[in-house]
Amino acid sequence: MVAFLIQRLLQGIVVLFIVTFFTFGLMQLAPGDPIDIMVGEAIITDEQIELIQDKWGLNRPWYEQYFTWLSNFVQGDFGQSVVRTGVPVSDMVIEAMGPTLKLNALAITFALVLAIPAGIMAAVKQYSVFDSGIMVWASAGVALPNFWIALMLIVLFTGQLGWLPSSTTGTWKHWVMPVAVLAINETAILARLSRGSTLEVINQEYVTTARAKGLSERLVMVRHVVRNALLPIVTVLGLRVAFLLSGTIVVETIFAFPGIGRLFITSVDRLDYQVVQAITVMFVLFVIVANIATDLLYGIIDPRIRVK
Amino acid sequence: MSSSGAGITEQSQQLEGAEALTTAGRKHRSEWQRSWQRFLRFKPGVVAGVFIICLCIVALVPGVFEPYDPLQPETSMRGASPTWDHPFGRDDIGRDILSRLIRGTRVALTVGIFSTLISLVVGVTVGAVSGYFGGWVDAILSRFVDALMAFPILVLLIVLAAVLGPSFWMTVVVIGLSVWSTYARVVRADVMSVRQRDFVFAARALGATNTRIIARHVLPNVIGPVIVIGTLSVGSIIILEAALSFLGFGIQRPTPSWGNMLADARAYILTFPHIAYPPGIMIFLTVLAFNLVGDGMRDALDPRQRD
User: Fold this and answer.
1) Is the pLDDT of residue B98 over 80?
2) Cβ contacts (< 8 Å) between A19 and chain B: which residues?
């Protein structure tokens, strides 16, 4: 298990290296000269340009710039925003990170709490009306684009009913729609998954054995069915993080939510590549950490993995 | 999923060795026919398939179905509600929404299908090479697949579109080159198991080259899952394109795409909500249709589902 984790950790570092290299390279190809973006309309002399180039290291070869950037990044120095001159990117990212983490944590919690019991129930009562309902929902939910759900919720709850505000944060009311939009797709995916994994488990011989030895139906479900059915869900959770983060970008943009997704979009629009680069790498770091955490969790709840 | 479909061609190949070629040929066809019959039994998949065929016709000749010019604004009719002449009403600058929706069908299907083809070719190639050769080739390629999977896909697409400049074919290529990791993973795993089979050893003993073994003996055995993933991925690519266009990094105005139509709708969401309904419903129905066909195919190509 320890060897396996070390291997995964090393793989994660290699992946991060590839990603930073690729991202940095892309940013070099990006349109817009950083000096032009910095000075804007102001007229500057060649000496001043040279001064800026020296300060930002723009006149050094790209690989030197890359390694400087990488070593700074590892130390938590993400450079400075080109647009909000002098503001450290790390401050901007950390400031935006809080709301985003809270938003995603709430969404995934709601999705899990709703979807897992629903999926298990559907499997236990296979071919019932409830089961068909869940399956219809699971098929429909993945086909609904989240940005359209967001618009429809705004039409209903802001326009028609006037119950919920459609932008920024403040009271709990501001959180309802962004959390709901992110949770809706996840609910559909997780419900389908937990239904499927419960069905796989429910006809296993050890479940029959548990029943045969006279355990109550409740104990059979809790001890033998649910525990095993949850395993595939844990593996998928790590993968879902990447999808959640994609959703976050869309949702934060629509609801003018002051999180990292919106910062990402505004930074791309303003050609503030230091920020774009930092956020991209942060996103990837999240996904890698989530996947390693999943492996770890999987090892803890499934003893068979530990033995291997 | 990784094993679904593998048995069909595999069985026919084993037969090829045992029986005369003609019998094997007939047997081969009937396996696909049986899959087809299994597919027909899944009614939602059939309905969805018919719907997709209709969409394809609309996408091929949109001009035949468009009642008005989808690009012609009429500023005096901004945000006009639905009428008999304009069943979905007019958008924020007075263009006919139905006509724009029809033109958008072409965009959605073109991106969906071509990006899928690009990702399929890249993913299957990487997966086959990775799984067949193993060793350091596999180690390197697998890290690239990991790196690709570590990106939240929309982040990658936005950065690429911003750097390369958004345009129609750029969107197709960028999406195609970003979503191939699933094929690579599935094909790699299947190829790894197939290459240990006797018929591969036999082919090698007969002096077949690696390329020939991969193309003739390994890939036919993994084609089932690839078809299923491909069909399912058309739907998710259509959503990706719409999201990208919605955020302004995909299909650029004035070309109507369902995504940028929703971006226009967003600005007037509380004044003219009717602009936002049709594109969203079309995305939903189209993606649902591809997913249902994909589900049907998965069941049909799964050799465990015997009739």
Assistant:
1) yes
2) 147, 150-151
